[in-house]
Specification:
This protein has 180 residues and is an alpha+beta fold. The chain is 29% helix and 19% strand. The protein contains 6 helices and 11 strands. The strands form 4 sheets. It has a 3-stranded antiparallel β-sheet. A 3-stranded antiparallel β-sheet has the order 4-7-11. It has a 3-stranded antiparallel β-sheet with strand order 6-9-8, with no helix packed on it. A hairpin with a 5-residue loop joins strand 2 and strand 3. It is globular, with a radius of gyration of 17 Å.
């Protein structure tokens, strides 16, 4: 079932559930959950439609596990990456000693002076491995991988969270904890 149509629907679904549910007149609850039947009924955008089988396939097979169903598959939400106010009820977790962030060269000057900022998102996203960080950074050009001394940050009192799809989240990464 994986094809350009499914990938396009996945990208659109990500946009709707992370940034703009009002695009299709969808309402999310305070935890970012949307009613599956309502989503399917309203998902008629740019001549795209979706049924439960496609939605289930996308949730189960998305390589980044961007989406999650509740236990009985009546609700769906994005796992992280929201620019809208939602409470994901993430538990604090002790991070690995080092985490990684993929970016591109044009942002290095700002990162060196300001550290990593969440910008329009709710958190800074970090990876447990360089390969994932490379994929993330490579979406905008030649990737530059930053090493984050997350163990030291944690000892200094910075909070970390691990999302359901294993993305490490934090509010900010000061430049002194980054190896360029």
């Amino acid at each position: 079932m994986e094809n350009k149509i499914t990938k396009g629907i996945s990208k659109l679904l990500s946009y709707i559930l992370r940034h703009s549910p009002e695009t299709i007149g969808l309402e999310l609850d305070e935890n970012g959950w949307a009613d599956v039947n309502e989503l399917i009924a309203k998902f008629d955008l740019y001549d795209r439609r979706i049924d439960f089988e496609q939605l289930d396939y996308i949730v189960e097979n998305n390589d980044k596990k961007r989406f999650a169903f509740n236990d009985n598959k009546t609700k769906i939400r994005a796992s992280q990456g929201h620019s809208i106010a939602v409470e994901l009820n993430l538990n604090q977790a002790e991070p690995l000693v080092y985490l990684y962030h993929g970016t591109v060269e044009k942002f290095l000057s700002d990162i060196k002076s300001q550290g990593l900022q969440k910008m329009s998102r709710r958190h800074v996203h970090l990876s447990a491995d360089k390969e994932t960080a490379n994929k993330v950074g490579g979406r905008r050009g030649k990737a530059v991988i930053l090493t984050i001394n997350s163990g030291e940050m944690h000892r200094a009192g910075y909070k970390f969270y691990l999302s359901a799809n294993n993305v490490w989240l934090t509010d900010v990464v000061p430049a002194e904890y980054i190896t360029f």
